[in-house]
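Hello,

Our lab assistant flagged a job as stuck in the queue for most of the afternoon. It eventually completed. Since we weren't sure the result was trustworthy after the delay, we are filing this so someone can double-check. Below is the sequence as submitted and the structure that was eventually returned. Let us know if re-running is recommended.
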Amino acid sequence: MEETGIITIEANAVDDGIEIKVIDNGVGIPANQLDKIFNTGYGKNLGIGLSNVHHRLQNLFGQNAGIQIESQLGVGTSLTFVVPERSK
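-- returned structure --
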């Protein structure tokens, strides 16, 4: 990016826990690459960061607890996940 990037982090209470959302105004991710994002080894450097967090969330909280990603070229990307409330 040529201009300054902005990263926004939001946390909101939802019915089943806390929803965390990380949003940027970066270059975005092409649609044909979104389904590869969580593959270990894909991406820059070692390609383990997002896949590691995604799979850890699923292992801890179930298959529906992984990271949801939305992106649009030239607009930015958002990552969302829910940390479920633990039973008391």
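-- support follow-up --
The delay was a queue issue, not a problem with the job. The result is valid. Residues 17 and 88 are 13 Å apart (CA to CA). The chain has two helices and four strands.
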